[in-house]
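Morning!

As promised:
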Amino acid sequence: MATSPQLESSSSTDYLNAEYGVKSWLLTTDHKRIAILYLASITFMFCIGALFALIIRLELLTPDGTLVEADTYNKMFTMHGLVMIFFFLIPSIPAVLGNFLIPLMIGAKDVAFPKLNLLSWYIYLFAACMFIYTILTGGLDTGWTFYTPLSTSYVSSSVVLGALSIFVVGFSSILTSLNFIVTIHRLRAPGLTWGRLPLFIWASYATSVIIVLGTPLIAISMALVALERFFGIGFFDPQLGGDPLLFQHLFWFYSHPAVYVMILPGMGVISEIITCFSRKKVFGYWSMALAILAIAVFGFLVWAHHMFVAGISVYSALVFSFLSYLVAVPSAIKVFNWTATMYRGSLYLTTPMLYALGFIGLFTMGGMTGLFLASLGFDVHVTDSYFVVAHFHYIMVGGMVTAFMGGIHFYWPKISGRMYPETWGRVAAAIIFIGFNLTFFPQFILGYLGMNRRYWHYLPQFQVLNVLSTAGASILGIGYLLPLGYFAWSIRYGRRVGNNPWNAAGLEWTTSSPPPTHNFGETPIVTWEAYNYDELPKDIDMRREETVVQH
Amino acid sequence: MSNISQATAVSIREAVDKHSLHGHFADLEQQREAAKLGMWVFLATEVMFFGGMITGYVAYRDAYPAAFQAGSVHMLFVAGTLNTALLITASLFVALAVHAAREGRRKALIGCLAISMFLGVCFLGVKGYEYYQHYLDHKVPTRSFQWDGPDPRHAEMFFVLYFFLTGFHALHMVIGISILGFIIYFAYKGRYTPEYHNPVENAALYWHFVDIVWIFLYPMLYLVGHTHV
Amino acid sequence: MFPLWPISASTMSGQVDALYIFLIAVTGTVTALICILVLVFIFRYRHSKHPVAEQVTGSIPLELTWSLVSLGIFMIFFLWGANIYVAEATPPKDSLQIYIVAKQWMWKTQHENGEREINALHVPVNRDVRLTMISQDVIHSFWVPEFRIKADVLPGRYTTLWFRANRTGTYHLFCAEYCGTLHSGMLGKVVVLDDAKYQQWVSGGGEMGSFAATGQKLFQQLGCANCHRFDTQGRGPNLVGVYGKPVLLGSGRSVIADDAYIRQHILNPGSKVVAGFKPIMPSFQGIVTEDQTLSLIAYIKSLATPEQREPVSNRPPVPKSAGAPEVQ
């Protein structure tokens, strides 16, 4: 019975101090450094997106326009959506945690194409600069969904540049995913069969496949909008016989799988966290792995549930509603299995675990309201209302961002070699949970009552709920600011940790924290199953002093 | 140690010396398999990209079959057929080039790729000529579009699709020709051996893909209106 | 104390609310169950109380059970919602027909008797109303929360919505598809009147006469009558009795001459020409507005009444072999 070994590592040289200087960072091909570069970039873009959200919530404190003009408000929600989806959520876990962890988790020295990896980051950066330039030269007010013919013929904002920046950032996603697929297929350490992989790898793999197959469709949608606008050639123009619904189909064929791109990596992280802090193998490993694949496959078959009132045929609507219920089943299985993983475990309520538990609650609520929306008769009433806004924020913020925060906390010691302050971590997690629910729960009610989304003015009777929502958003904002503060603090003053401060399973924990540039002294040979918590120490040392590696 | 494994050891050493085996790979085979898988994954994205546009074509053609037929009649059938022949021949030479690379025949490799490049450039030349003719004929979809038959709007939509599809295809041709150019350069520098010639194989894959896209476009655009040649 | 749903003012409202309550009840129960379980586990199995984890790693029967039960519940959600949706997609015959033209950023309502409204819609209570809608510019969406109905209003294509208001009062109309600067200002009111008041309102009538009469004037003005004569001598098909019937095309296919077909034919005559006729009809795109097109359609529809014209037709009969006619 072989346990995962605690491998020797040279304690003084790790990937952070192997080389110094700006050039060593900007021209790095080390996947770990690239992950840090992404972390900095997406955090920056998140702040921009959050700024737009702040303006939206402040404006919505009053039923009439007080803070900004209608056009400005329209730009705020458009750009909030675009920045958060394309420049924060989609890259977040894959580009940061995926880049950092995938080679480590599979016992490889790096990803399959390290230079391509760096190129992906530069493409991301270039696209982000294009988008920021779009913001500065008038912004975009088409809605993040770019529906035609509004976006092609009826607005005067920087649509071409904005659409092209999305086109470019798509390439960054595609190249990263290509890298991950090849890495996971070809660079696994000897003995690491598919059935022994951590679920984070399964999730990253499925996410990458979705990105590879789906992103070209958003690329072509954006390209066609840009071409139509730039050359005046009416591809979606009804006057030429163009069909505005064709745009919607092309757009949503990507944008629905995109939501699974956003949530699957988060689900992978949650599996890692819950198993570690329950000291248990995951309940139903193969169900979990196959559920991930099922979500990816079915995710491609449900796009027109965004179009139930758009003018599709009744027959299509029935089919897509049915399929949408099918895709909910694997997600439900995952929630049940995470809960069952905790059963008879030995639970630690560390910060990552708090985020994971928050995820279970919030993702479940988001998922349940997805079941509401998949029901045709119900959707007719609430589509394009705040009910939908609440639903997707529960999944994306309550689900994905929560998982991201959990993952950053869980892997922070591995990434930086330092521990964050645990009490502050728990406090921030609690603040985020409270703030989040206060922000978005009232929006379910608002939606059913009849408040439209993308509305700058609203009926006075909706004000109370809107004020509650804005209050929640302020609390949420504070919750997100705290980690920025204490992570920065921890880089200098945080407790140093050894290889495996959590006594967690997985190859990534067998090397030093931070890892050396080439990850492993020698290539590991894997003879154990995933989540071998039956073989690992039963306890996690939560003391504040320096931890020594235990066996 | 037998002669064969000695030769392998030598070629691996050569490969590492020539910087062809990258440090994070265990051996050349792993590297080759990784590179090939990478190119296939990339081609999958290209299939989806063109697939999106082709879906648009299918949707509009199904809605307006007569207009699309009429539009296709205005295609330059001879030019399109010539281009198809050029492209298929170029692909033949690319395949021969790969064969040469596998056998280490450097001059044949370079020669075949050069012919393919030349044929690719000819393809673009013919395409340019076609575009120019369409321009003179007022068939470019902008305000200057003119159409004498019934249903001018949907006929214009045919031309929108024609220019978008062949335009994106031409862009990929330019990329493909440039890649072949790079391969020729590195082949000249002696970079490729029978044990290591991944870039040649992958460049060939890309070229064949661009060819296959054309094989879809040709009937969709040219043959629809030319059923009786 | 605090309303959780809008007033119910149509026959669909109660059904949608019932579905809502059912969804809340079922999903709420399951969510509560999961949350309670999690809390129980946190308490029962915390490390200090339960230092050694027991590796319970799977149970196929349990997993199958909760998967199939979930699927079963989902199917109920699907069927219930589908039922409502299909009912909403099937306007009853003899509905009161009203036309809606949306544009940035207002609603234009047109009643068949000639009444026109801006940003308002007067309808009788307890009567089926069918809306045929189109946009002049971008995509809009017609939403009346109190009725629980919504449908997008598209440029280039008619969409329909029907409802039966069962409570008098004034209700909100919102545009529910982002349409530019004043999207949130594109509001209207739906006024549901009892029979007496509605008759009073309706007889206030348009000075222009009925909508179909407007269409008739246009039919003459634009020269349609020159080719579309009401005998067999016209260069274009005789339009008497054509509305809603199958028409044979030159390609051999047949289509129903409904609103969509007629509109398309006015704007783009070359695309689906009736068999036996030359494609010589000029296009009226840019010449007629969407409102005018609707009035022409209303006129052509009115040509179905037998006492107006003799049923003399120069349109080719549609053989059975042409297959089932397509609906636009």
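The longest helix of chain B spans residues 152-188.

Hope this helps with the figure draft.
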